[in-house]
Inverse folding.
C-alpha cells in the first residue's frame, strides 16, 4: 500500500530507477552463477497450511501468505522452481519423513528434529504463550496446566515441551483454526499455540475479549529443514534466501501485515498531541494515585475472597462429578430419593439392569407400580419395607436387607437384594442382582439330586446285574444239558432274551451313574437304532419307519449308552407328535474327507437320520437344545438331548439338528466305522455243550456266593477245574499258593467291586507285581472306575460285563488262552 504522504510526482520521479533495479534483480541469477548454487532445476517444499499470516488458504483453497511470497522471490533469486505444497502439519512432517518432499518449512528446532534434519538460519521468532478463558484464574506458567485439558496442534513442538513437564492431558487438533473454533464453542478452555495464528483467529471469530494470554512459555524460531546430511540442498536454500534484501523482506511483511494509514507528519502530530495530553493528565493521575491505591487494596482483598470462593465451588463441582462417576461405575443399582418420595437420582447400572429411566419412575409410587405389577406382592414388599424404615428411624438401628423380585421394562424378572441407607433427609437403596446366584444354586441342587440318583441307579444296576447273572447263567447251564431239539430249549431261549432286555435296562441305569465310562465292542448300530425307536413308539400314537440296509459298517460303541442316546432322540420325537405322526429312521455308510465341515477326522462313518413330523423347534431355541437343563416341556428335565449329545461326542461322533416350525425336526448322528468285523448276532451264537475234564484251572473271585456257585457249576460243566474266592485278598493268597505248589491257575476271573473288601483292581495289581504273566479277566455289573473300558491299562487281558452267558464266557476264555492275554481287547456283555 502506498503512503498517502508521497505524491504522484515523486512516485514518477523514482519510477524508472525502481523499474531498473527490479529488472537487474530478476535478471541477476541468469548472468551470475554462484559456486554454491545446486544444479537441480526444482525442489519440493511442504509446510503447514494453517498459519496466518505466514501461510493459509483463501476461500478458493489456494495457499497464500508471507512465506509463499518469500519462496516466489527465492525462485527469482535462484532460478530454481519451488513446488510448494501445504497440508495439515502432522501430515506434512510424515510426508517429509517418507521422502515425498525435499524441504519442510515453518518448523521449530528441537532435539528430536535435529536428529532428522539440517536447518537453515532462523527467519522468524514466534512467541508461544498459554491462552485461557478470562473467567479462569491462577494460570501463570506451564506448571499451572496440571489438571486442565489443554488444546494443542497435532505434530506441534509444544506437545514435546508440555509432556517433558508432565502435562499429558492434551487434546490434539489438526489446525489452529480448529483449536480456536473449539475454544469459541466452549469445547476447550485452555490452549497453547503459536501467537500469530492464535491472535488471527481470536479476532476473526470475535472472541479476543474472552481470553487472556500468559507470558510466552518460550520463543520458537521458524527454520527451513532438509533431510539430515543433505548439505548441498541446505546451502542452496540458504543461498537463495540470503540474496533477498531486507527491503524485499519488509515489502512482503507490509503486504500481509499492512502499515499505518496515516503519514509521518500526521503521526508526528499525534505523538506530540499525545504527549501534551499525557502531561496534562499527569497531575490528575498523581491526584488519583492515592485513591486508586486504596481501591486497589480493597479490590485485591475482594478478588482473593472471590478466588477462594471460586476454588471452593470448583472443588465442590469436581467432587460431585467424581462421586457421580464413581456411582455410575458401581456394579449395583442405586436409587436416591427425598423425604417426599421423589426419586432424584438413579445410576447407570440401575437403568441398564431394570430398563427404566428417571422420567419413567420420577416418584417411588411410579417405581413400585412398574417394579411390582402384582398388587398383592407389591403391598407385601412396600409395607414390609416401610415398617423396617420406620423402626430404624425411631430406634436408630440398621435397616435389614430384603429380597425382591423386580419386573424389568422388557418383562423379565430380576431377583435382587435391596439394602436401604438413610442419609440425612434422603434414602439410598442399593440393589444387588442375585438372579444368577439363585439360578446356580437351583442348578446345583439339581446336580446334587442327579448325583444321588446316579449313585442309587449304579447300586441298583450292580445288584440287578448280579441277580441277572445268576438267572442267565443257570439258563445257559440248563441249555448245555439239553439238545437243541428239546421242546424246553425254545422256552429257555425266550427266558434268556427277557433277561437280556432286563440287562439293557440295567445298562440304561448305569448311563445315569456318576463317572460311568463307555465299555465298547464292535456291533451293528442299525439293530440298536431299530430297537430303541421301536420300544419308544410302543407307548405313543407314532408310526415308525425304518430304512436301514444290511451292509452298514460295524461300529465300536457301548451298546447301552448308544441305545440310551437313540432312545432319548426317539422320546423327544414322540413327545413332539402328541397327536400322532411318523418317525423315520434312516442309516447309510458315508466317507468324510479332511475338508469336512463337521470337524471330524477323515474316514468312514455310519450316518443315522431321525426325522419326525412334529411341531418343530423355533429358531431361537434350536441353538440351545443340547444345553443341559434347557427344556420347553412342562416338567421336563432338559437332560435327554444333552445326554445324547454327550454320549455321541464321547464315541468320537457328531450330532446335529435342523428344524422347521410346523413341519418337524431332523436329528443327524454320525458314528465312526470300526475296522473290526461285526460279530454274529448274539442269538445266533451256538450254545457250548458240556465237555470232558481239561487241564485248565480257573480261579473265580466274586463277593456274591450265588455267582461263585454258578461259576463253579457252569465252568465245571465246560471242563474247567474251578476254585473260588470271596474277595481280592483271598484270591491273591490262593493264586500265590497255587503258583508255589507248581499248579498255577490258567486264568483268574475277578469281580471289580467288592463292598467292604479288596476288589479286582487292587488284587490284579498285587498279582501282576509278583507274576507278570498272569492271565486276569475283570468282571463287573457296575463301576465308577474306567477299568471296564480300559482294562488293558490296568493289566487285565479281557473284560466281561454282567450278566453273561455260557457262550460269552467260552468266547472270552478262548481268546484269552489263544492270545495269552497279550493282544486281547474283548468286552463281553
Amino acid at each position: 500500500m502506498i503512503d498517502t504522504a508521497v505524491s504522484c510526482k515523486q512516485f514518477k520521479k523514482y519510477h524508472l530507477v525502481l523499474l531498473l533495479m527490479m529488472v537487474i534483480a530478476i535478471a541477476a541469477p541468469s548472468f551470475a552463477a554462484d559456486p554454491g548454487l545446486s544444479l537441480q532445476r526444482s525442489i519440493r517444499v511442504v509446510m503447514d497450511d494453517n498459519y496466518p499470516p505466514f501461510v493459509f488458504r483463501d476461500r478458493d483453497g489456494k495457499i497464500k501468505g508471507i512465506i509463499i511470497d518469500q519462496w516466489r522471490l527465492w525462485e527469482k533469486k535462484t532460478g530454481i522452481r519451488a513446488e510448494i505444497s501445504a497440508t495439515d502439519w502432522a501430515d506434512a512432517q510424515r510426508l517429509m519423513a517418507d521422502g515425498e518432499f525435499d524441504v519442510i518449512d515453518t518448523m521449530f528446532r528441537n532435539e528430536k528434529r535435529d536428529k532428522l534434519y539440517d536447518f537453515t538460519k532462523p527467519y522468524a521468532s514466534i512467541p508461544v504463550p498459554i491462552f485461557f478463558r478470562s473467567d479462569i484464574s491462577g494460570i501463570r506458567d506451564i506448571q499451572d496446566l496440571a489438571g486442565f485439558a489443554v488444546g494443542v496442534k497435532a505434530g506441534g513442538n509444544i506437545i514435546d515441551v508440555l509432556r517433558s513437564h508432565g502435562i499429558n492431558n492434551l487434546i490434539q487438533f489438526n489446525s489452529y483454526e480448529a483449536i480456536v473454533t473449539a475454544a469459541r464453542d466452549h469445547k476447550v478452555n485452555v490452549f497453547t499455540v503459536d501467537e500469530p495464528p492464535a491472535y488471527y483467529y481470536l479476532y476473526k471469530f470475535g472472541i479476543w475479549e474472552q481470553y487472556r494470554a500468559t507470558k510466552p512459555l518460550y520463543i520458537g524460531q521458524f527454520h527451513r529443514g532438509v533431510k539430515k546430511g543433505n548439505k548441498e540442498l541446505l546451502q542452496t536454500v540458504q543461498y537463495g534466501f540470503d540474496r533477498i534484501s531486507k527491503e524485499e523482506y519488509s515489502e512482503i511483511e507490509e503486504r500481509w501485515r499492512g502499515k499505518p494509514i496515516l503519514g509521518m507528519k500526521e503521526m508526528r502530530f499525534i505523538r506530540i498531541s499525545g504527549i501534551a495530553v499525557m502531561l496534562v493528565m499527569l497531575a490528575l493521575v498523581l491526584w488519583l494515585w492515592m485513591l486508586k491505591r486504596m481501591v486497589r487494596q480493597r479490590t485485591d482483598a475482594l478478588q482473593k475472597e472471590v478466588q477462594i470462593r471460586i476454588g471452593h465451588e470448583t472443588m465442590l463441582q469436581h467432587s460431585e462429578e467424581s462421586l457421580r462417576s464413581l456411582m455410575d461405575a458401581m456394579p449395583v443399582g442405586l436409587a436416591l430419593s427425598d423425604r417426599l418420595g421423589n426419586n432424584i437420582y438413579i445410576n447407570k447400572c440401575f437403568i441398564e439392569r431394570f430398563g427404566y429411566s428417571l422420567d419413567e419412575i420420577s416418584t417411588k409410587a411410579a417405581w413400585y407400580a412398574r417394579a411390582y405389577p402384582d398388587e398383592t406382592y407389591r403391598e407385601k414388599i412396600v409395607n414390609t419395607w416401610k415398617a423396617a424404615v420406620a423402626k430404624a428411624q425411631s430406634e436408630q438401628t440398621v435397616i435389614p436387607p430384603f429380597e425382591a423380585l423386580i419386573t424389568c421394562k422388557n418383562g423379565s424378572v430380576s431377583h435382587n437384594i435391596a439394602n436401604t441407607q438413610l442419609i440425612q433427609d434422603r434414602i439410598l437403596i442399593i440393589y444387588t442382582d442375585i438372579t444368577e446366584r439363585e439360578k446356580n444354586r437351583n442348578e446345583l441342587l439339581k446336580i446334587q439330586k442327579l448325583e444321588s440318583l446316579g449313585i442309587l441307579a449304579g447300586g441298583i444296576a450292580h445288584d440287578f446285574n448280579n441277580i441277572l447273572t445268576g438267572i442267565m447263567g443257570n439258563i445257559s447251564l440248563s441249555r448245555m444239558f439239553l439238545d437243541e431239539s428239546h421242546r424246553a430249549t425254545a422256552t429257555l431261549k425266550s427266558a434268556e432274551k427277557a433277561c437280556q432286555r432286563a440287562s439293557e435296562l440295567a445298562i440304561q441305569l448305569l448311563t445315569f451313574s456318576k463317572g460311568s465310562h463307555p465299555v465298547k465292542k464292535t456291533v451293528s448300530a442299525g439293530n440298536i437304532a431299530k430297537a430303541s425307536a421301536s420300544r419308544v413308539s410302543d407307548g405313543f400314537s407314532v408310526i415308525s419307519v425304518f430304512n436301514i440296509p444290511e451292509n452298514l459298517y460295524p461300529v465300536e460303541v457301548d451298546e447301552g449308552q448308544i441305545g440310551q442316546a437313540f432312545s432319548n432322540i426317539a422320546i423327544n420325537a414322540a413327545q413332539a407328535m402328541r397327536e400322532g405322526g411318523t418317525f423315520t429312521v434312516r442309516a447309510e455308510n458315508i466317507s468324510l474327507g479332511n475338508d469336512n465341515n463337521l470337524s471330524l477326522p477323515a474316514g468312514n462313518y455310519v450316518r443315522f437320520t431321525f426325522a419326525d413330523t412334529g411341531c418343530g423347534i423355533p429358531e431361537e431355541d434350536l441353538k440351545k437344545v443340547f444345553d443341559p437343563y434347557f427344556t420347553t416341556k412342562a416338567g421336563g428335565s432338559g437332560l435327554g438331548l444333552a445326554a445324547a449329545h454327550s454320549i455321541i461326542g464321547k464315541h468320537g461322533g457328531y450330532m446335529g439338528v435342523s428344524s422347521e416350525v410346523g413341519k418337524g425336526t431332523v436329528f443327524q448322528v454320525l458314528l465312526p466305522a470300526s475296522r473290526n468285523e461285526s460279530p454274529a448276532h448274539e442269538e445266533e451264537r451256538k450254545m457250548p455243550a458240556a465237555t470232558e475234564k481239561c487241564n485248565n484251572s480257573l480261579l473265580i473271585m466274586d463277593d456274591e456266593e450265588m455267582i461263585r456257585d454258578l461259576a463253579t457249576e457252569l465252568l465245571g460243566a465246560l471242563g474247567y477245574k474251578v476254585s473260588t474266592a470271596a474277595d481280592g485278598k483271598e484270591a491273591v493268597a490262593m493264586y500265590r499258593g497255587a503258583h508255589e505248589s507248581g499248579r498255577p491257575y490258567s486264568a483268574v476271573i475277578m469281580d471289580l467291586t467288592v463292598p467292604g473288601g479288596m476288589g479286582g483292581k487292587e488284587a490284579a495289581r498285587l498279582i501282576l507285581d509278583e507274576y507278570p504273566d498272569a492271565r486276569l479277566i475283570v468282571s463287573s455289573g457296575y463301576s465308577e472306575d474306567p477299568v471296564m473300558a480300559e482294562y488293558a491299562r490296568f493289566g487285565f487281558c479281557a473284560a466281561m460285563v454282567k450278566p453273561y452267558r455260557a457262550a460269552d464266557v467260552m468266547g472270552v476264555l478262548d481268546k484269552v488262552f489263544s492270545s495269552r492275554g497279550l493282544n486281547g481287547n474283548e468286552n463281553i456283555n
Observations:
- The radius of gyration is 49 Å.
- The first strand starts at residue 42 and ends at 48.
